[in-house]
Write a structure and sequence with these properties.
The protein is an alpha+beta fold. It has helices at 3-20, 41-52, and strands at residues 25-33, 61-66, 69-73, 78-82, 99-100, 106-114. Helix 1 packs across helix 2.
Amino acid sequence: MHEITLCQRALEIIEQQAAQNGARRVTGVWLKIGAFSCVEPAALTFCFELVCRGTVAEGAALHIEEERAECWCPACREYVHLLSQHVRRCPQCGSGELRIVADDGMQIRRIEISEE
C-alpha cells in the first residue's frame, strides 16, 4: 500500500506550507489523483487520517478529485477517455497503440488553513 507513503509526503508539504503561512490548523486539503496513479481513494482517505493524527492537519477535510483516464489514439487521431486504467485499447477502433496523456501522480491543489 503506497498510499501511506504518499500521505506522509503530502503531510510534510502541508506542514511546511502551514508554518510558512502562520497557520495553527489545517482545515481542508484538496488532492488531485492521476488516472494512472494506482491510488485507491478509500485507502488514501484512511491513510491521510492516520498520518495526520497529532499534527496541524488532524481532522482536516480531505477532498479528492480523480482525473479521467485520457489517452491519444494515433489510429483515430483523437483523444479518448477510458473507463478503466486497466483497459489499454481504444474504445472507438480497438487499437492497442494508445499513448497515455493523463497524469500518473498526485498533486496538492489547495490547502485551507485557520490562524485560530
